[in-house]
Each structure stands twice: as C-alpha cells, then as structure tokens.
Write a structure and sequence with these properties.
about 70 residues; mainly alpha
Length: about 70
C-alpha cells in the first residue's frame, strides 16, 4: 500500500512540475522583454537630464508599442 501511494504521489508531483515548466516556457519571451525594458529604464534613469536632452535620437519623447496578435 505504501509503495502504491508513493508511486501515485510521485506521478502527481511530476505532472505538476511539467505543467509549471510548460507555462513558464510559453511566457519566457515576454518575461525576457519585460526584464530588458526594466533594466533599460533603470539605466536611463541613472543618466543626467542634460545627456538625455542633448541626444534626441536615442531619447525620443514618445515610444511606439506594437503587439503581435
């Protein structure tokens, strides 16, 4: 009985881990882009305002966001 219960429990654990892995794998690109955007924003916030104002090509007043459907 103990062996059968252990087998069922381990099978359940493996199924849950596999499902979590596929969920993360599905959303990994979005998570990577979100982290990169956060790091870029943090780096730009560390720059002085005069540097941002002097180079309008790299620091525009607006951003264009595109989404893929």
């Amino acid at each position: 009985m103990v062996i059968a219960s252990s087998f069922i429990f381990f099978n359940f654990i493996i199924a849950e881990v596999t499902e979590s892995y596929y969920t993360v794998k599905k959303d990994i690109k979005a998570l990577i882009y979100k982290e990169r955007a956060g790091l870029l924003a943090e780096a730009e916030d560390m720059m002085r305002q005069t540097v941002r104002d002097s180079n309008k090509l790299y620091f525009p007043k607006y951003l264009i966001k595109r989404s893929i459907e």
